[in-house]
Write a structure and sequence with these properties.
By secondary structure, the chain is an all-alpha fold. The protein has one domain. The protein is about 75% helix and about 0% strand. The longest helix has 23 residues. It is elongated.
Length: about 60
């Protein structure tokens, strides 16, 4: 369960970062309906923070 939490949290944090970059309109991230849409910056931030929290929580609780 611990490894699943760490890996799942890391993947969730990575997805959140990609969503944030798409919201900012980064040129090196594939374009989609999220490109340059400011609401995806906020959604990505919340997702990345949630994923990081999940990974840290799983890391600290054996």
């Amino acid at each position: 369960m611990r490894i699943a939490g760490i890996v799942g949290g890391a993947i969730l944090a990575f997805v959140g970062i990609v969503w944030m970059l798409q919201g900012f309109g980064a040129t090196y991230v594939p374009t989609s309906f999220m490109t340059k849409a400011p609401e995806w910056i906020f959604i990505g931030l919340i997702t990345a923070l949630g994923g990081a929290w999940l990974a840290v929580r799983a890391w600290r609780n054996p």
